[in-house]
Amino acid sequence: MIPSGLDRIDLRGISAHGFHGVFAEERQNGQTFIADVSLGLDLGPAAREGDLTKTVHYGVLAQQIHDAIVGEPVDLIESLALRMVDLCLAEESVQWVSVTVHKPEAPIEVTFEDVAVTIERSKQ
Predict the structure, then answer these.
(1) Contact by Cβ (8 Å): 58, 9
(2) How much is the pLDDT for 44?
(3) Which of 64, 80, 103, 119 is catalytic?
């Protein structure tokens, strides 16, 4: 849950083909991964001054999240989510972040809609 006093930027549904997973087929064939990112920060200075440098350039961040999905494979989507959290917290103005990584094509033997992992972290 976002800490009190912070505003929020949400990026939903960043989708890419990645090769993450513990099974050989996942590493060989890959699958779709989807990321939802929420950032907690003070948007007041950017809003008052109309200054992009006082907020997060969400176009740049979206590309970084995409690049994390298509980048170096990891065994667990937990690791992928933490990689994205670290990217977000590297932004100076970001005080809190929540990242959910969805793996809708996970190799599960029963019918399911989605598998997702969420990691939340704060600089405080």
Answers:
(1) yes
(2) 96
(3) 103
